Request: fold
Amino acid sequence: MLTLDDAKRIIAAAEKTATDDVGQPMNIAVVDAGGHLLAFVRQPNAWLGSIDIAINKAFTARAFDIPTKKLAELSQPDEQFFGIHVSNHSRVVIFAGGIPLERDGAIVGAIGVSGGFSKQDQAVAEAGAAAL
Reply:
């Protein structure tokens, strides 16, 4: 189970990386094992348009138990998940920044980050995931 304290720790680590290493304000979402929003932070000046993207990256990572960066590779033309982005009422996001969160070998939730370039989002999400 992922607790609110876990989510706060994950978000704090992600925020630190966004501020100290990436230098880009981010939207950071953590969902629970059911894919429901547990915690969310929008750093000052983070893009408004990235709020839903961060939340949906977290949902996608949990819904399919795969990092969104990997899902992006598998959803290209001629790949097995081509077209998946229009499933689930178009909530599926197929670019980097969403990572399932594991504890003791079980997926307990996911983090989603949006607000910069894909590599920046991914770095911030990885930092958050590592805090669990």
In short: Residues 4-22 form the longest helix (19 residues). The CA atoms of residues 60 and 123 lie 18 Å apart.
